[in-house]
Write a structure and sequence with these properties.
Distance between the termini: 101 Å
Shape: globular
Largest sheet: 6 strands, antiparallel
Strand content: 25-35%
Helix content: 10-25%
Number of helices: 8
Structural class: alpha+beta
Radius of gyration: 32 Å
């Protein structure tokens, strides 16, 4: 057998190569060992995929909540779910599970799940909640301020007179119903006492006097102007509201987009809520429209010859937008008032005799019924959905949908909102929060009867009925606050919801002035 020996030079090459390889392995081993025992910076889990190496940490359980309870799942949910940071926890030592590591896994504003500064070799139990809708987030925000604001679901019914003598205790509270674009609205119903809001201050004063003992009021900008107009009436002048008074509102509902719809409830100067009844709950009494001999005059805006045009403003719109410009323009410019939510004046036409839908009606002197009458007086099926958003959902130019024809985002309540709140066709209800012992307009068309144009109104007995648009009734402005405006108060008459800037003197009822109240008793 022949043996081959290596030359001395070859032996040296092999030895040097071996030393280099051994050194590299040692360096890599030290680096990996060090890395496995240090904390990691922010790591984003994109759409449920974890960008961590296997030795970093171990997920012992993933739980997902779609309904009432959590269920264990095999795959981590992506966007549309948020980490419940209160329930999620990790630990490093199996023998020390009680020493939990919290607040290291969360969902950021972009909807991405993030791991932040989590120690290596952590074991984690992660809980995911289905992301709240905009209206759910607003309700949760208000619930933080008042723990009694909990939805009762969609259990309210409108086929009987359950609220005709005051909603029963089981019918008072917050309920939910479908809203635009597949969203959910949360509305107040019955004799609720936790939906007060204080927002804005008056910049002008208004006086009025009645022409007759039973009414027919006229408004004036000063006491002197009122008293000098003896040709109209010699009755006493009454101050409706003065300069720099707090403006009060009642929340009607949380819209599907999360904004807060509310109705004017009066003013006060002493920090207390104004009276719930009387002329002070309105900004005055006015005609809805100056003419009432054609069907088009049912519109908040209208165009003669078209069933749902927008070229001419109603008298109601003119008055409301002037009031808005006089008193709320600063709040509007500050971004506190939502510009996207609209006001539905449903002009869907129905045959006057058969109650069948007929889109050829709604102009001139054609007898016409409108959608609000069919829904609330005949079928008792109110809705927050606007049948023809392009033509009947009145919005400002900046809005993403609707008519985009308003100068300012202000309107009136709809007849559907009245029914949701507790009103009922031709039945008196003095025990729901929209009752004010006065007659006032809604913005919902009723009919054209052949000789007169009718729009829904709420009368002094607080049943809803038809009135001719040329009559003068009260106007109660409706507007929508942006979703995150309210941060103080608990919604009661002596502690209304409001905005309180940090560092300013907040309502004395607040448990945490300048911030969110977390404990309301």
């Amino acid at each position: 057998m022949k043996f081959v020996t290596l030359k001395t030079l070859d032996k040296k090459k092999i030895l040097i190569t071996t030393l280099i390889v051994t050194s590299l392995i040692l360096v890599i081993t030290i680096f990996v060992s060090h890395a496995s025992f240090t904390s990691t910076d922010h790591v984003t889990i994109v759409d449920g995929v974890i960008n961590y190496t296997p030795y970093d940490f171990k997920i012992l359980g993933i739980y997902q909540k779609d309904g009432e309870d959590y269920t264990e799942v095999e795959v981590m949910p992506g966007k549309g779910y948020t980490v419940n940071v209160d329930k999620t926890y990790c630990y490093v030592d199996l023998d020390d599970e009680d020493n939990q590591i919290k607040n290291k896994i969360y969902t950021n504003s972009a909807g991405e799940h993030v791991i932040k500064e989590l120690p290596k070799r952590s074991k984690c139990i992660i809980y995911f909640d289905k992301e709240k809708s905009p209206s759910e987030k607003t309700l949760a925000q208000l619930t933080t301020l008042n723990k009694d604001l909990v939805s009762k679901g969609n259990t309210a019914h409108f086929t009987g007179t359950s609220c005709s003598d005051g909603c029963s205790l089981t019918e008072n509270g917050i309920y939910e119903a479908a809203d635009e674009n597949g969203t959910t609205s949360y509305y107040f119903r019955g004799t609720v006492e936790n939906n007060y809001v204080k927002f804005g201050k008056t910049d002008v004063e208004i006086w009025f006097k009645n022409k007759y003992s039973w009414g027919s009021p006229k408004n004036y900008s000063s006491q002197e102007e009122c008293e000098s107009d003896t040709g109209y009436s010699t009755n006493a002048c009454i101050k409706l509201y003065g300069y720099n008074e707090d403006i009060w509102w009642r929340i009607i509902r949380i819209n599907g987009d999360g904004s807060i719809r509310m109705i004017y409830a009066g003013t006060s100067t002493n920090g207390n809520a104004p009276a719930q009844t009387g002329a002070g709950t309105m900004i005055g009494s006015y005609k809805f429209n100056n003419s009432s001999d054609q069907a088009e005059y049912v519109g908040y805006q209208y165009t003669l010859g078209e069933k749902n045009g927008h070229t001419t403003d109603s008298n109601a719109k003119t008055v409301l937008e002037k009031w808005f410009a006089d008193n709320l323009i600063d709040e509007y410019n500050a971004g506190y008032i939502d510009k996207n939510a609209g006001f539905c004046g449903d002009r869907t036409a129905y045959d006057y005799a058969t109650y069948e839908r007929n889109d050829s009606l709604g102009t001139g002197t054609q007898k016409t019924n409108y959608g609000g009458y069919i829904r609330t007086a005949r079928t008792h099926e109110p809705t927050f959905l606007c049948e023809d958003k392009e033509h009947d959902l009145y919005t400002v130019q900046e809005a993403s949908e609707g008519t985009q024809s308003l100068t300012y985002p202000i309107g009136l309540t709809t007849i559907d909102e009245q029914v949701y709140a507790g009103n009922y066709w031709l039945e008196s209800n003095t025990k729901y929060y929209l009752y004010n012992n006065q007659s006032y307009w809604t913005m919902s068309p009723f009919d054209f009867a052949g000789s007169s144009t009718g729009v829904f109104s709420v009368n002094s007995r607080s049943s809803f009925t038809r009135d001719i648009v040329g009559n003068a009734f009260g106007l109660r402005p409706v507007l929508n606050l942006v979703s995150d405006y309210i941060n103080n108060g608990n919604g009661t008459a002596n502690c209304p919801f409001e905005y309180c800037a940090v560092g300013t003197q907040c309502n004395v009822c607040a448990k945490n002035p300048g911030g969110i109240i977390t404990d309301v008793t």
